[in-house]
Amino acid sequence: MGSLAPTWTPPQGFESRPVAVLGVGVLGRRIASCWAAAGYHVHIRDPDAKQRHECLQYVDENLHAYQELARQVPSGKTAAFEDLTVAVQEAWLVFECVPEMFQLKIDTFAELEEAAPDDFSDAAKKRILNTHYFMPPKIMATELMTDGFTSPELFPFLMERFKEAGLRPYVARRESTGFIFNRLWAAVKRELLTILAEDVADVPTLDAIYSDVILGGSYLPFRLMDLTGLDTIAFIEEHYIKERNLPRNHLDHLRQNYFAKGKLGNKSPSGGFYPPPTPSPNPSTAQPPHRLLALDLGLFSQTSFRNAGALLSLALPVSPSPTPTIHTLLSNLPAPDGIAICPRTSRVFWTTMGAAMGAPGGALHTATLPHLSDARALIGADDERVHTPKQVCVDSASRQVYFCDREGMGLLRCGYEGEGLEEVVRNGDWRVGGGDARRWCVGVAVARGLGRVFWSQKGPSKGGEGRIFCKRLDGGGAEAEEVLGGLPEPIDLEWVEKEGE
Q1: pLDDT of residue 3
Q2: Where in the numbering of this chain does the 3-hydroxyacyl-CoA dehydrogenase C-terminal domain appear (predicted)?
Q3: What is the distance between the alpha carbons of residues 296 and 312, in angstroms, rounded to a whole number?
Q4: Each residue of 291-312: pLDDT tens digit?
Q5: 298 and which of 305, 316, 325, 411 could share a cystine (Cβ 3.0–4.6 Å)?
Q6: Residue 338 contacts by C-beta under 8 Å, 6 or more apart in sequence?
């Protein structure tokens, strides 16, 4: 890492000494929260009294979210200072987060050099390094990079401290103009903007294909290059180099370090960037990754779970394959619960129970696979006919969606666009009898071959009063037939139409 000093030792008694954060805007207050959650006392310094107040308020309101990610210790205390000298007096680690004004940064470091203890990690050439936070607690990745003089022993020590705060540190191997991800992202966005400027594709197309191939394809970038073949990658790069008069050092590096060693990707015995995959017993029958859609209720979220739900896509590759990946398709959902797919139309339907406990506010939603870019509510949260929708199922033959409404004590159905909402079952009015769990409808399944719809009424928790009912799809015959009773707490149902289906 450049001309680095030979020796470094950890600051004495750092466990009980404060971490200082200079500048507490949007990022500074998040950094303060990270280290307070890790159990360190934090001194924040900002000349603006309003910023200091807002930082303390942010830490107080959001610390629990950071504690869920950090080591399990009592949180540290956060104190605010106007005077830099007082703020850093006993600090073992100082983060400079002042606004991006060059002279202000110079002045801050000059003042810091005079005021800081001799042994803290920002006081001398060998103790200074570059750090890059993204946006905790949403993104906990961080990057550490030498300034050309940083002591190499500092990095493993700081990596352990960062992990205590729930952060995920990555170390750049040498000084660089730009951190690791910034350089990677710069190349991606530069090419995206070039494609847009050349009118090769519009913005929705670029975002959609990026999501489909990169985010949803379960392939990491270097594994995707191995799959394509490094000789093919080189051929394409050679074309761009000639057409745009670009530097070729990256291509020369590829040829010297990979081609010369017989590494051309998955198709070569030596592999490529990664070792070759284990051959499949029958490569001709290899299947693409399976995809599973799942709802995350958000119970362990960094904020209130009532607005922290998500609709996830889980890639389940066929072995041998890259590591399975999870991609968030939709976020900030208010307590999602049921999900179903209509394969004929590539439509997905899901329910949300709503942000308020014990009150109406649930909704039925739909979107088109694979990107869900047209996500919309079919039955909105302001429609008081729906209280707390739970399991949903699709009857593709009639193009109808069935869903249970728990506290609403009903089973409802509507068309694929939300039209014709009607009650199939209504066990009462939630305003006067919503607390009787024996009437709560939760699970639903359509048996088209039998001409029946089944639903569960859960009853009290483990109370042995749960039941499963059925009713004719066409509405004829008896009202409701009890199929099973005395169940502990039946919820979701699934009807298997044919053996093996």
Answers
A1: 39
A2: 178-271
A3: 7
A4: 788 988 877 665 565 678 889 8
A5: 305
A6: 295, 350, 351, 389, 390, 391, 392, 403, 404, 492
